[in-house]
């Protein structure tokens, strides 16, 4: 039977894995088994979850004050979640949220109150407890006006403010009581309000979630989720095609999609947002502190060849340091492929006989093959790139220790320029600082404009500052923008998400109370 092929601009799926054997067919269908491309999870604390597999698991257990409609990554479709309604002042500096009644936390942690919301955002803005603290720098006061009302006062207007209080990254609301009771164990035993609650984690094997019967939108249709960590692409495929998995993280390559679309009872979903792939050049490492060396690297990279390698429909070429399609993206200063100029610049920098660089590279199929293409391109101009290939969690650990000359990194953020510029290009976010986020290039050229844009009163003024920041960052050559890589998942046709899928900022299927599995 030929599989149906659904290329959707969003979407993702879920899985079902039960133990094949003594368990009945009906029982198997009640638990969704998912195959994730990872060796293990790193943390289930939503304020620290940055790895793709961690963010996915968190998204099924937590809620925000508002949410992106399931199956959507469109900011225009933000809707109420834990808040029933909200108001804002005319100047956009004061936001007041009214919480829904009788929203229960998992286990015995009581009912959601304004104190939990205040605690959650104070924690999200604290660099000692959050990887997203820079996003919340403009949060001046967070107050509980009463048990069901929260007021947030900003220092300056924040473009896309609702995205910061949505079910995404630091916007996820946690139980104050649980964090205070569990302490460091909260990252291994998260407590949220979502449709699924944490059950069990087996190191380097799986994380199991169970349906939360008291979920405020109603009990889920499926009994739970089991996410298996299967870093091997071939092993995930085998488990899926043999019926042990209902949903797998696919390979984001055209040739894989073209093959998977002919598997029996299978749908391949390709969806947004794309994770923007960038090659960061570490200015803190000599000789990369030499502008001519950084320019040579930019001139040596043929982005068109890389996009062709990844495949049409899977990759969208980038141009600015701001991702494709984000509000404020300006491509006026894009780099162009010029290998002869690269050789000339290296010679002028004193490296006419070549240059040796090292890079920590993830073994992930979404990274290693592309870095091999980049390695070959650099070799043509005399740059020898030694790749230290490690598993994906180790890769994340090592690049955050500043161990790599070049850092290939992909991420999706709330689709406005500030979210990317602040986290990847402001010096406050540079690796090694207490406020570090993901500024792997140690860039500082756009600081003043990035900061000024945060205080701008109008979009017109904000766009002007963002444009200036992109020009200065481009001239400093902190990175080489590559492409946006779309999400690719394969699911059994028995899996129904319960919603039309058009996007997921959490980069994973929106498994909700509406999701069904009919075998």
UniProtKB/TrEMBL annotation:
Lineage top rank: taxon: Bacteria
| Classification via PROSITE patterns | SBP_BACTERIAL_5
**Does Endoplasmic reticulum count among this protein's keywords?**
no
Pfam families according to UniProt: SBP_bac_5 (PF00496)
**SUPFAM superfamilies from the entry?**
Periplasmic binding protein-like II
Localization terms from the record = Periplasm
Give residue ranges for domain Solute-binding protein family.
78-428
Q: What keywords were assigned to this record?
A: Plasmid, Signal, Transport
InterPro entries per the UniProt record, alphabetical: Peptide/Ni-bd, SBP_5, SBP_5_CS, SBP_5_dom
Signal peptide range = 1-29
Major location (coarse): periplasm
Matching PANTHER family, A to Z?
Answer: OLIGOPEPTIDE-BINDING PROTEIN APPA, PERIPLASMIC BINDING COMPONENT OF ABC TRANSPORTER
Q: Which family does it belong to?
A: Belongs to the bacterial solute-binding protein 5 family.
Q: What is this protein called?
A: Polyamine ABC transporter substrate-binding protein
């Amino acid at each position: 039977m030929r599989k149906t092929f659904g290329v959707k601009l969003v979407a993702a799926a879920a899985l079902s894995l039960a133990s094949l054997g003594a368990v009945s067919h009906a029982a198997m269908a009640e638990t969704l088994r998912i195959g994730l491309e990872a060796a293990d999870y790193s943390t289930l604390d939503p304020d620290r979850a940055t790895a793709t597999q961690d963010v996915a698991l968190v998204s099924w257990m937590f809620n925000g004050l508002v949410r992106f409609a399931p199956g959507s990554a469109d900011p225009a479709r933000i809707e109420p979640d834990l808040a029933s309604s909200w108001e804002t002042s005319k100047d956009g500096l004061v936001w007041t949220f009214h919480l829904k009644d009788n929203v229960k936390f998992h286990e015995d942690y009581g009912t959601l109150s304004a104190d939990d919301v205040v605690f959650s955002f104070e924690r999200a803005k604290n660099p000692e407890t959050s990887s997203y603290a820079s996003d919340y720098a403009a949060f001046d006061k967070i107050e509980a006006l009463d048990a069901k009302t929260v007021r947030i006062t900003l220092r300056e207007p924040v473009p896309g403010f609702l995205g910061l209080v949505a079910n995404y990254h630091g916007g996820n609301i946690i139980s104050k009581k649980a964090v205070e009771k569990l302490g460091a164990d909260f990252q291994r035993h998260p407590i949220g309000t979502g449709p699924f609650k944490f059950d069990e984690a087996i190191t380097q094997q799986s994380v199991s979630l169970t349906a939360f019967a008291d979920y405020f939108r109603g009990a889920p249709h499926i009994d739970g989720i089991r996410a298996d960590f299967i870093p091997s692409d071939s092993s995930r495929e085998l488990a899926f095609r043999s019926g042990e998995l209902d949903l797998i993280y696919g390979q984001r390559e055209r040739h894989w999609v073209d093959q998977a679309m002919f598997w029996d009872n299978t749908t391949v979903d390709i969806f947004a947002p794309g994770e923007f792939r960038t090659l960061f050049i570490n200015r803190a490492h000599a000789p990369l502190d030499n502008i001519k060396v950084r320019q040579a690297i930019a001139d040596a990279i043929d982005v068109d060849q890389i996009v062709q390698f990844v495949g049409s429909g899977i990759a969208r070429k980038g141009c600015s340091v701001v991702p494709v399609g984000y509000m404020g993206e300006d491509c006026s200063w894009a780099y162009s492929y010029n290998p002869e100029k690269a050789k000339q610049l290296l010679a002028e920098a004193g490296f006419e006989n070549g240059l040796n660089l090292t890079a920590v590279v993830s073994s992930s199929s979404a990274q290693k093959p592309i870095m091999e293409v980049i390695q070959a391109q650099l070799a043509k101009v005399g740059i020898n790139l030694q790749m230290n290939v490690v598993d994906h969690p180790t890769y994340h650990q090592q690049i955050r220790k500043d161990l790599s000359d070049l850092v290939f990194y992909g991420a999706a953020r709330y689709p406005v320029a500030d979210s990317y510029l602040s986290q990847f290009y402001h010096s406050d976010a540079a690796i090694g600082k207490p406020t570090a986020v993901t500024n792997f290039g140690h860039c500082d050229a756009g600081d003043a404009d990035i900061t000024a844009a945060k205080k701008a009163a109008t979009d017109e003024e904000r766009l002007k500052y963002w444009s200036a920041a992109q020009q200065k960052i481009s001239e400093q050559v902190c990175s080489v923008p590559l492409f946006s890589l779309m999400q690719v998942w394969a699911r059994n046709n028995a899996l129904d998400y319960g919603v039309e899928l058009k996007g997921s900022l959490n980069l994973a299927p929106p498994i909700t109370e509406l999701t069904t599995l009919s075998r």
